[in-house]
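Field notebook, page 747. I keep forgetting to write these up properly, so this time I am using the form the group agreed on. The chain and the ligand, zinc ion, are recorded exactly as supplied. Prediction of the bound pose follows.
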Amino acid sequence: MTSPAAIIEVAIPLHLDRTFHYRVPEHLQHRALSGRRALVPFGNRKLTGYILGEAAETEIANLKDIIDVLDSEPLWTAGELEFFRWAASYYQHPLGEVVQTALPAGINIQTRKGTSGVEAPLTGGKSVRRETFYLPGPVEAVTIPRQPGAKALEILEVIREAGDISGGELRKRFGTCTPQLKRLAELGLATAEEREVYRDPFRNREVTRDEPRLLHSHQKMALEAITSCLDLQQYSPFLLHGVTGSGKTEIYLQAISHALELGKTALVLVPEIALTPQLTGRFQARFGGGIAILHSALSDGERYDEWRRIRRGLAKIVIGARSAIFAPLENIGIIVVDEEHEASFKQSDGLRYNARDLALVRGRMERAAVVLGSATPLVTSIHAAAQGRLTILELPDRVAGRPMPRVDLVAMKGSKGVLSAQLSTGLVETGEQGHQAIVFLNRRGFATFLVCAECAKPLICPNCSVTLTYHRQRRQSLCHYCDYAVPAPGTCPACGCPSLSELGAGTEKLEHELKELLPTARILRMDSDTTSGKGSHERLLSRMNDGSADILVGTQMIAKGHDFPEVTLVGVVNAEASLGMPDFRAAERTFQLLSQVIGRAGRGETPGRVVVQALDTEHYAIQSAAAHDGAGFYRQELEFRREAGYPPFTHLAAFAISGLAEHTVTEQADAAARLLAHLKTELKIRVEILGPAPSPLYRLRNRFRRQILLKAASRSDLHRLLTSWRQRAAVASTVRISVDIDPVDMM
Ligand code: ADP
Ligand code: ZN
């Protein structure tokens, strides 16, 4: 694929289902190789395309010439291209857009509007920082024919001592020294060299070195299962199922260490890296350097730097959120997906990929071990393990035999107020014992919404079909979807009645009530209202860690990944809130979330205790979470999925049809469904077509939304139907139709 080609195949990042052929002018032939970008004429535009390789026979007579080749080094390998092609086909997405998604945003900065049409290669461009370094000149130049000056000699001394030193460093010591450096260069005493400088996302972080732990017996068995597969260099997918605190991370660390010893690299995917500073800290403490981190808080430039470090083999471990699945890491020995059940592995727009699923695909292509870890695996993972498609590794106990916390269920039906007597007493006692507590409520804001006492109409967002959440501190009613905000009205906008009542409770109200109950307690609130500032999240966590706070109140943000040994009491308010979601995964999500929150209690010396409040405590998701009965939950949930025909017993694809004009959206949704029904008959395949129906969020940011859900027992039937739909559909330009394979967000 790397021989010079006269005709090449190019993928273009537009919503087009095909690739294009171009001729390569002679002077570019040695550079127009696969894995590089090319500037190509397209209609009357110039676009950046991705060279896939030499084109097979082409029937087109008058091919256009490419204008330029934009990279001096390949951006992706043949193996990565195969992976991109797989994703394009599986997710029914144009290959050019898949490649674009896989490349770091920073690289595309250079691609914008080059006036000359000639763009910078990989080693240039705005996002790369280059700095001049000075080195001593050739040794022969010891006899100095002309005096360079005292300051220049001093500078020379420093360069000699350091071996090489950056211009910036010299300026720090000597102030302006350009004339002296120029002089030294003229005399052949120093040479200047341009080097690329990598921004280091770890800078200013202190790391203490950490040694591998002696494993307990379950950990040992799990690690051995993984390392023996690593030795064989075969694709081997594992499900590491262990309660929080059972030592999963220790296994990742030791398995990765084994992979590195074999000369392999490791890819670690985490749900949201900004929320897990502790995890990245542990990797640094164990491995020191050689780690690249890719996460959403990086600037485009930093991201691009990390990407290039990886591409050049300077990082052996890559840790990142979902997009890191496309990291340009070669020779992968192990892929870890931590908290594999997290919905955030799914990308919700553009290429709607699921990094957890792609980890298995990439792992297979790389013949790597793939370790999916969770305390509460996906129902589909448990099923796959039962069928033998994943090897299950169980860590049933917490490290050091710490018991799981005792859980009390409190039915709140008919009771007023946010806090039950049990939770109130528990909080008071915990405070008296000098321990910490966490209170969880998965709803931010003060009241859930304001409702008119007269006409009973709640306040609704004008752009979205959702109620506005009342935030007392800000004196505003807010839409949590589009950020629409109005001053909280004194009267009902519908009927003018002056009495608006607050319905439901959010974290803000919970914090307020806790302050009344425990006036001297130091209470922190953590939700997206209090963590929008940079570093605010880490600040709140460190106040819990250093004991300068007593109670942490928050949304699901507090449920994840933190290890607070002093927390002995966890309260859950409104445990059933997530059961009401119009989503077949509502029970699964509720079980996962409750289990995670419950797992926050008693991680230290003192045993923990949990109070779970719910209107109705009978649901199996709540019951099983409270009883630490994962097996019981999965049994019942799989039964429900089988009866209702949901994954893992069927495969799903969702069409989302949206637009600004309601009637066009309805029309186009109907047309799409009719075409699907027609094609299904034509292809003689069995796919269930549900809808079109209004989406649960019927209006979002002013757009009307309808959806069609496809269910099929056979994945290839579903795939064939979607492929022919894409070939045949003619969609009006005023609506958007997106196809989501294995949808996660059903709203
Ligand atoms: P998980 O990832 O399942 O939540 P961790 O790997 O974070 O579990 O382990 C929980 C705690 O126990 C951590 O502080 C970890 O350092 C410690 N730990 C893990 N394995 C061992 C072991 N074999 N011996 C002693 N401490 C351990
Ligand atoms: Zn809105």
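OBSERVATIONS:
- The pocket of zinc ion (ligand 2) is lined by residues 461, 463-464, 479, 481-482, 484 (CB under 6 Å).
- The CA atoms of residues 205 and 281 lie 9 Å apart.
FOLLOW-UP: compare against the apo run.
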